[in-house]
Amino acid sequence: MFLKINGFNKNWDGFSLKDISLEIEEGQYFVLLGPCGAGKTLLLNGIAGLYRPDSGNIFMQGLEVTFLPAEKRNIGYLFQRDAIFTHLSVKENIYYGLKYHKPDKKYLDTLFDLLDIADLLGRRDTVNLSGGEARKVALARSLAVGPRLLLLDEPLSFLDPLSQEKVMQSLGALNKQMGLSIIHVTHDVQEVKSIAKNAAVLFDGSIVQAGTMEKVLRDPSDFLKEKFWGCSHV
Amino acid sequence: MIYLLLSAILLCLHFIFFAFFVDTGTNAVILAANILFAFNGVKVYRKESLNKFILYLFGYLLLFVFVFLLSRANLLFAIFVILYSAVFNIAYLLPYLIILIFSVIFVTPYWMQVFILFSAFYFFASSIYRRTYSKFFVALFSIGFISILLIIFPILYIFLQVSPQSLLLAFKNNEFQQALLNSLVTSGISTLIILIFGVPFAYVMARKNFAGKGFLDNLINLPILIPQTVAGIALLVVLGPKSPVGEFMFKNCRLAIANGYLGIIAAQVFVSSPFLIRSAITAFESIDQRLEDASRTLGASELSTFMRISLPLAGSGIFSGCILALARALSEVGSLMVIAYHPMTAPIYIYDQFIQYGLSEIQPMAVLLVISCLWAFIGLHWLRHQLIKKG
Fold this sequence. Notes:
The complex is a heterodimer. Chain A has a 6-stranded mixed beta sheet, sandwiched between helices. A 4-stranded antiparallel beta sheet of chain A has the order 2-1-4-5, with helices on one face. Chain A is 28% helix and 26% strand. Chain A has helices spanning 40-48, 90-94, 105-115, 131-144, 161-177, 213-218, 222-225; strands at 3-12, 15-24, 29-33, 55-60, 63-64, 75-78, 149-153, 181-186, 198-203, 206-212. Helix content of chain B is 84%, strand content 0%. Chain B contains 18 helices and no strands. Chain B has helices spanning 2-16, 24-47, 50-70, 74-87, 94-106, 111-132, 135-161, 164-171, 174-207, 213-225, 228-239, 244-253, 261-285, 289-297, 302-331, 334-339, 346-357, 359-390. Chain B is elongated and about 95 Å long. The mean pLDDT of chain B is 89. The chains are: A alpha/beta, B mainly alpha.
C-alpha cells in the first residue's frame, strides 16, 4: 500500500478529526469530497506533517511517517490560495525547494514543459501574476522537488473557467504521464468526476463513505444527496 | 491716462487725509502701497467679475480698519497692502496671507508659530478636501489636528527661539558632544541587544500557543507601565555596587554597572524592549501561516523557514520596531537618573545643565538634541524605505 492512514485522531478546540482510515494506491488519483468545514484541509495538513495526530498512524510506502516532520516527508502540497512567497521572484519561488532536494534535470525539463511555465520563469515579481499563473507557479514549486505524493487543496478555487480547464489538464497529465499519486480535496463533485478513480467523503471530521468514484456517484451517501456542495471560500 | 488720474487722486488724499495720522516718511510708504493697490484694482476691474472687484475693495477696507485704525501699525499696514495687492490674483496663496495677517494682528507674540501651524493646517485640510470632497473628513482632521498642535507647538516654539550662532556654540561644547555620543552608542547597543533576544521570543509568541502565554504577553508591557524611576530603583537593587552581581562584576572585571555604560544599557534595554518586541510580534503575526507551511513541505526545516521566509517578510516591521526602541532608549531619563547619572547621556546632560544654569542656557542644546534625533530618524526611515523598495 502506498499511503495508509490508520485510526487518525486529532482534537482542536471545537473541532476534531475522528478515527480516519484511508488507503491509497500508488499512481492513484484520489478525491476527498466534503462540504466546507468538514476538516478536509486539516486532514491534508495532517498528511503533509504540519502537525502531529493525537493518535493513529500514517504509513507511506511501508514505512511509518507519523512523527516525521513535514520537511522530511517529501509530499508536495498545493495550498489553497497558492501561498506564493511574495518577497521572492517567480523563479526563486519555483526553485525554492531545490536547495533541499536534487531531482535530475530531465525531470525538471519534463515538468516545466508539461506545465508550460517557461515564460513565467522570467518574471521578476509575483505581485502581478494572474490567478491562473499564480496557481501554475505554486504547482510548479511543489512539484519541482520531485514529491512522491501531491496534495491539492481546492486547486480550482478562484479561477476562471478557462484556467480551471488548463489546471485540470495539467493534473491529468501529471497523473497519467508521470505516474504521480494525487489527493485532490474539493467540495465540488463535478470538477473531478471524469478524472478521479477513487474517492472518500468527509463530513464533520469523519469519513462517511469511501470507494471507487463510480460507486460514490452511483450510490451516494446521504450527505452527497443533500445539496451541500455550494459553498464559498472567502 | 486712468493711472495718472488715480495717482493724482491718491496723492491729494495722502496730503490731506493721511498727513493727520502719520509722519511724512511713513506716509510716502503707504502712498506707494496704495498706488500699487489702485493700479492692481484697475486690472481686477477690467479682467475679473464685479463681485471679485468688490471683494478686493472689501479686503482693503478690513485691512484699513483692523491694521491701520485699530492696531495703529502703520508700516505693517503698508506691507500688508502691498502683499494683498500682489497675492490677490493667486488664489492658492491668498489664504496663507489671510492667516499671516490674522496671526500678526491677533496673536502678536506667537505670530510666527501660529502662522506656520495654521498654514500647515490649511495646507493639509485643503488637500484632504480636494482629494475626497468630504467635509466629514475635514472636520475629523480639524479635531485631530489639535492633538498634533499640542505636540508641535512647544517644539516649534523652542526652535524659533534660538539663533544659529548659539546652536553652533552649543555644538562646539565638548561635554555636550560627548554626551550625545554616549547617547547614540548606548541606545544603539541597547537596540541591538533587544533585537538579538527579542526577535526569537516574538516569533514564538506570534506562532505558538502554550500555557502561560497570556501572562507573558502582559509581562512584555510591564516596562511601559512601571514608572521610570521605579524601574531605575529595581535595576539598582539588582545590579548596584552592593548587589551580588555588581560586586562580582567589579571584583572580576573592574567594571561598575551602576554609574557606568553597562548601567545605561541595562536601563535602556529595560524601558525600550516592549516597543521592539511588540512590533516584531505584530510583524510575524501578519505573515500568512501557509507561507511557512509551504516552505516546510518543500523541504525547509523550521530554522530554514524562519531564515528564508519569516524573517525577510517580517523585516520591515521589525525595523520599524528598532526605530521605536532606539527612540525610546535615546529619550530615556527617569531610570538613568537613578542607576547611571554618570556617564551622562544627552538628555541627562541637558537636565543637569538646566538644574545648574537655568532655562536660557540649555535651550540651544535642547534644540540641537531634537535636531540630531530628528535627523537620525529621518535617516533610518529613509533606509527602511530603500530596503522595502529592494524587497
